[in-house]
Amino acid sequence: MDHFLYRDGELYAEDVRIADIAASVGTPFYLYSTATLTRHFQLFDEALDGMDHMVCYAMKAASNQAILKTLAELGAGMDVVSGGEYARAKAAGVPGDRIVFSGVGKTRAEIRQALDGGIRQFNVESEPEMRVISEIATSVGKTAPITVRVNPDVDAKTHEKIATGKSENKFGIPIAKAREVYAEAAALPGIEVIGIDVHIGSQLTDLTPYELAYQKVAELTEQLRADGHTIKRLDLGGGLGIPYARSNEAPPLPSDYGALIKRTVGHLGCEIEIEPGRLIAGNAGILVSRVIYVKQGEGRQFLILDGAMNDLIRPAMYDAHHDIVPVIEPEPGVEQEPYDIVGPVCESGDTFAKNRMMPPLKDGDLVAFRSAGAYGAVMASEYNTRPLVPEVLARGDQFAVIRQRPDFDEIINRDTIPPWL
Ligand code: LLP
After folding, report:
1. Quick check: bond before 28 cis, omega within 30?
2. 203 ligand 1 Cβ < 6 A
3. Which is the catalytic residue, given 1, 226, 346, 417?
4. Which atom of ligand 1 is nearest to the CA of 314?
5. Does 408 reside within a domain?
6. 411 C-alpha to center of ligand 1: Å?
7. Are residues 318 and 262 in the same domain?
8. For ligand 1, atom 9: residue with the closest CA
9. What's the average pLDDT block by block, 10 residues per block, for the chain (421 residues)?
10. CATH no. for residue 338?
11. Does ligand 1 lie within 6 Å of residue 61's CB atom?
């Protein structure tokens, strides 16, 4: 459920008319709903009720500080994957002991940064990384809490570009090698092994792969404990999918996922961490764009928008579907027409949808891409020297620009000309 609903014939974000925001901010822009972010966070939090737990928002999904602050105030921790994300989380007021550092290639500088600023744990992805963390922590006289990310070799049944839990993927250490790696970890100075980490992929629409992976983690926990290791925390990753095509998708609910966690690892008495990104932010954000032209092609009509692949890359990159709806509510029973919905960027990949049935639209009309809150703004670029798309946050009857649209000077003045030119 989200808070982008038609009211009096127009789309609203909570109690704000989207057309008013468009008039004030210009298009395209991302628009988030505080109530939806809050609700989605709370669904996870409640799903783990009764267990010692922390929901660490995977901020790669949408990392604007206003979003981070909204979630942190509800009690969220943060899952970060770069020094930049770590700095952003800190800037948003998240304390180091609520920040988990994931990622397959943490640099020495990033490890040092997190040790200096405080860290809840590093999710270690390889032996070389573990040795470097040990070396750096020892050199600064600190002890780094770590989990080791294991790769359980399960098929997450999701798009190949976002599956991470098969042995052919670059993530984690093979679960069969885990005992060996934990033995080495126990002998290294400067690190303290506190648990196990697993993340098998993103946009999972079936719980079975989780069940298989978490069962393997439960077995491993018992084995490692028998080997003498302290396993007190399990980081179970993120990845729960959302309905992108609302008419025909119904992925599992966080409450079902929570019940699965309790069933598979609840008996171990560990503190549970999860790292959801998409399910918190995805349906809490839309991309609002304006029709520039309706162009008649050969046997098809193109809806040319002012938003483009640089603003929302998911359709071009993953063939992802986003529902696209007009901001003015269509009259009931209006005859729909097929459109190829495209942006102005000079490549055919800049296509959001082909043959999409829409009510008749004309120049100047506003449309909204639903489910664009996760992996939308964060993956935007300035390709074609198009200004980075701004972000707006709604809350009740208020809205605020949380990232301004840069003007052309700001963009082009970032270039520097070498002395020989
Ligand atoms: N934890 C780790 C270690 C991850 O790698 C990810 C996502 C998450 C948590 C959060 O997963 P989520 O709950 O958001 O599914 N750009 C792609 C998605 C990439 C996901 C990368 N890792 C997309 O637009 O679909």
Report:
1. yes
2. yes
3. 346
4. 24
5. yes
6. 29
7. no
8. 238
9. 94 98 98 98 98 98 98 98 98 98 97 98 97 98 98 88 79 95 98 98 96 98 98 98 90 97 98 98 98 94 98 97 98 96 96 97 98 98 98 98 98 97 98
10. 2.40.37.10
11. yes
Residues 362-400 pLDDT 10s:
999 999 999 999 999 999 999 999 999 999 999 999 999
- Does ligand 1 lie within 6 Å of residue 58's CB atom? yes
Q: Using the mean position of ligand 1's atoms as its centre, give its distance from the Cα of residue 275 in Å.
A: 9
Which of the listed residues 245, 274, 303 is the one where a domain comes to its end?
Answer: 274
Query: What does the mean pLDDT of the chain come to?
Result: 96
pTM beyond 0.85: the answer is: yes
Ligand 1 near 275 CB (within 6 A)? yes
Distance of CA 236 to CAs 67, 123, 217, Å? Answer: 23, 11, 9
Place of tokens 């573990």: 130
Q: How many Å apart are CA 324 and CA 332, to the nearest integer?
A: 17
**63 inside domain:** no
CA 61 to ligand 1: nearest atom: 14
**Tokens for 88?**
């952003």
146-190 tens-digit pLDDT = 999 999 999 888 888 877 877 778 889 999 999 999 999 999 999
Q: What's the domain range around 347? A: 4-31+282-412
The count of domains in the chain is: 2
Q: Is 270 tagged catalytic?
A: no
What single letter denotes the amino acid at residue 55?
V
* Cβ pair 72, 93 in contact under 8 A: yes
What does the alpha-carbon distance between residue 15 and residue 177 come to, in Å, rounded to a whole number? 53
Ligand 1 and 322: CB distance under 6 A: no
Question: Domain boundary at 256, 274, 292, which?
Answer: 274
Is residue 315 lining ligand 1, measured as CB closer than 6 Å?
Answer: no
